[in-house]
Amino acid sequence: MQNKVLMILCDGMRPDAVVKCGHPFAGKLMSTACYNPHAQTVFPSYTLPCHMSLFHSRTPDEHGVKTNVFVPGERKGLFEQLKDNGKSTAFFYSWGELKDLYSPYALCYGRFISETFLPSETVTEFLEEDCEKFLNEYNPDFAFLYLETTDSVGHTNGWGSDEYYKAANHSFMLIEKIMSNIPKDYSVIVLADHGGHDFTHGSNDPIDMTIPLFVKTDREIDFAEFENANIIDIAPTVCDIIGVPSSKEWKGKSLLK
Ligand SMILES: [Zn+2]
Question: Which of 194, 182, 188, 176 lies closest to 21, judged by CA?
């Protein structure tokens, strides 16, 4: 049974990029995983509020982080819930603000490379490599891999530009690499935090609010829930796959049967 989870987040990846990026593995994943091209994120559709909702299963109104500036508060997120139930966690990321997604005690292994230092694609390649190695050697119950390139290229060249789809293509190259090389006991979730338009995001327009969601697992999906999935449903789903209860504070629901 696949009772471990690798979650891969492509920052700012719209569902149309899954189709238009032209990477064969994107097509393969659409047919071999459960795929919802119209899952929803939360408003405001900025990176930190969306990640807070992803890991804390509450809307920005409820968790209080509504911009990319962190606001301290008493919250129990996915990392704490897993650690408190004896599970191991790992986090691979390149945007410093994401450090506030976990309490230091709750993380077993963290790898951070600043997005400001190396080219974006190189950063994601290093993170993928490290994540792949760590999963094979240490088999943590949960790992989060953050791939930033689609967002940074969106802000520079525009969402929907040729460069943007090229960045999505590179992300799927890394997704194929890691999914082909990790132990078979991992379920894999691939999603985005938000979409984007022109050179920005943050609005409640469907183009910013709609995200792709893939779940590849041997567990039984509840397709009625899956069709209406929201980003706040992911933390409960991860707990369900791993076999720990959701936090009582959380508002989302598991997408498993
Ligand atoms: Zn952004």
Answer: 176
Using the mean position of ligand 1's atoms as its centre, give its distance from the Cα of residue 196 in Å: 8
When the candidates are 3.20.20.60, 3.30.110.30, 3.40.720.10, 2.60.40.10, the CATH number that belongs to 4-242 is 3.40.720.10
Q: How far does the centroid of ligand 1 lie from the alpha carbon of residue 18, in Å?
A: 18
Ligand 1 centroid, distance to 77 Cα (angstroms): 22
Q: Is pLDDT above 90 for 77?
A: yes
* d(CA 125, ligand 1 centre) in Å: 20
Which residues keep their CB under 5 angstroms from ion ligand 1?
Answer: 151
Dig out the tokens for 145 from the structure.
Answer: 């891999």
pLDDT at 94: 97
Cα 33 to middle of ligand 1, angstroms: 27
Beta bridge partners of 6: 143, 188
What value does the mean pLDDT take over residues 129-156? 98
Q: Helix H segments across the chain?
A: 15-20, 24-32, 47-56, 60-63, 78-84, 120-138, 149-157, 162-181, 206-209, 223-227, 234-242
pLDDT higher than threshold 90 for residue 248: yes
Cα(86) to centroid(ligand 1), Å: 34
| HSE-CB for 46 with a 13 A CA cutoff | 12
